[in-house]
Design goal:
- One of its GO terms (biological process) is endosomal transport.
- InterPro entries: AAA+_ATPase, AAA_lid_3, ATPase_AAA_core, ATPase_AAA_CS, MIT_dom, MIT_dom_sf, MT-severing_AAA_ATPase, P-loop_NTPase.
- It is a peripheral membrane protein.
- The chain contains 13 helices and 8 strands.
- The protein is an alpha/beta fold.
- The protein folds into 3 domains: about 90 residues, Up-down Bundle (Methane Monooxygenase Hydroxylase, Chain G, domain 1); about 160 residues, P-loop containing nucleotide triphosphate hydrolases (Rossmann fold, 3-Layer(aba) Sandwich); about 90 residues, Helicase, Ruva Protein, domain 3 (Orthogonal Bundle), CATH 1.10.8.60.
- The chain has a 5-stranded parallel beta sheet with strand order 2-3-4-1-5.
- Strand 3, helix 9 and strand 4 form a beta-alpha-beta unit.
- Helix 1 runs antiparallel to helix 2 and helix 2 packs antiparallel against helix 3.
- The protein is extended, with a radius of gyration of 29 Å.
Length: about 400
């Protein structure tokens, strides 16, 4: 048991070295290391008894064998027929016209692929959410205006030691409006807005996840002023520990370097993060978020406003006193909880109509002209004198 474990540990260690050399584009050294690692993987596979682990080892062997074959083809190609960037660390060939590996814009095809993967994260259109659409949270809105909007609209105010925040973390219970606030920031800021999550930055290819992080910040600097919003940032930058994977550690390290690293121009780029569990963020990542804004559960006035916003223009007989009563009875509810309650309440009349077997005629104000009454049908009991037996779809 110990011997096969040693084979697997040694294989993983050599693969990490191979990936490092691969990223550095030391193709020949990387190829040697991949071959060496495959030998150890083969021995581990031969003696492994666990079927699931054997399947995992076989999958990894196929992946690294494919990569080694691509590197071998690349290394054996004469220098005058291949460029320095002719093979990407994700295992895909990147040679362009004339063997230069670059496109007309000067980007190699691998970089172009990374940019394409991140293009969906850029909001081409503003979400059209104003500050007024966010109920309550006045303190958080003022802090965001000061930290985000002010430096963008009045950059001349921030000179000398008066510098804008480079990282802002919004934290608080789930459903309190952190992501909604970010949409309001995107609408008001009038700047390039990148909205990313772990699915945008985590790749199955070894070494590509951290390159996506680096490319994200490069694109933000090219399009500044820019805001990078990372929802559920704890899923990418959690506390470092023994159980985390090498890929997760690399992503975290790249975030640290890009957010506050030596030689990186962060002028005009703001990182806006949101999390429900700030205590699970890595300590170094927490330090990068200089400004931290708590997003609390809504107070009674905010809950009243949330009820009004969610009911909207739906016809109803609710009065201001009713809204105040609803707000007082929803202590401890988040904005998301209230939205679910209202949606369920709005469906109650529909459910009543669907299950009704008898209807009676009533006179109600016309939707076009309230001064005119029109005849409608409403559900009633079978014993009603005016009851008409029919189903809702008749």
């Amino acid at each position: 048991m110990s011997g096969q474990s040693n084979f697997l540990d040694r294989a993983c260690e050599i693969v990490r070295q191979a990936i490092d050399e691969d990223i550095k584009q030391n193709w020949e050294e990387s190829l040697k290391l991949y071959k060496n690692a495959l030998d150890y993987f083969h021995m581990a596979y031969k003696y492994e008894k666990n079927p699931k682990l054997k399947d995992l080892i076989r999958t990894k062997m196929e992946e690294y064998l494919d990569r080694a074959e691509k590197l071998k083809t690349h290394v054996q190609t004469p220098d005058d027929k291949r460029g320095r960037q002719a093979v990407g660390a994700n295992g895909k060939g990147t040679s362009g016209e004339g063997g230069s590996g670059t496109n007309a814009d000067g980007d190699d095809a691998d970089t172009k692929k990374l940019r394409g993967a991140l293009s969906s994260a850029i909001l081409a259109e503003t979400p059209n959410v104003s500050w007024d659409d966010v109920a309550g949270l006045e303190g958080a809105k003022e802090s965001l205006k000061e930290a985000v909007i002010l430096p963008i609209k009045f950059p001349h105010l921030f000179t000398g030691k008066r510098t804008p925040w480079r990282g802002i973390l919004m934290y608080g219970p789930p459903g309190t409006g952190k992501s909604y606030l970010a949409k309001a920031v995107a609408t008001e800021a009038k700047s390039t807005f990148f909205s990313v999550s772990s699915s945008d930055l985590v790749s199955k290819w070894m070494g590509e996840s951290e390159r996506l992080v680096k490319q994200l910040f490069t694109m933000a600097r090219e399009n500044k002023p820019a805001i990078i919003f990372i929802d559920e940032v704890d899923s990418l930058c959690g506390t470092r520990g023994e159980g985390e994977s090498e890929a997760a550690r690399r992503i975290k390290t790249e975030f640290l370097v890009q957010m506050n690293g030596v030689g990186n121009d962060a002028e005009g780029v703001l990182v806006l993060g949101a999390t429900n569990i700030p205590w699970q963020l890595d300590i170094a990542i927490q330090r990068r978020f200089e400004k931290r804004i708590f997003i609390p559960l809504p107070d009674p006035e905010a809950r009243k406003r949330i009820f009004e916003l969610n009911v909207g223009t739906t016809p109803c007989t609710l009065t201001q006193q009713d809204y105040r009563e609803l707000a007082s009875q929803s202590q401890g509810y988040s904005g998301s909880d209230i939205a679910v309650v209202v949606r369920d309440a709005l469906m109650q009349p529909v459910r009543k109509v669907l299950s009704a077997t008898h209807f009676r005629p009533v006179m109600v104000p016309s939707a076009e002209d309230p001064a005119i009454s029109v005849k409608k049908l409403t559900p009633c009991s079978p014993g009603d004198p005016l009851a008409i037996e029919k189903s809702w779809n008749e």
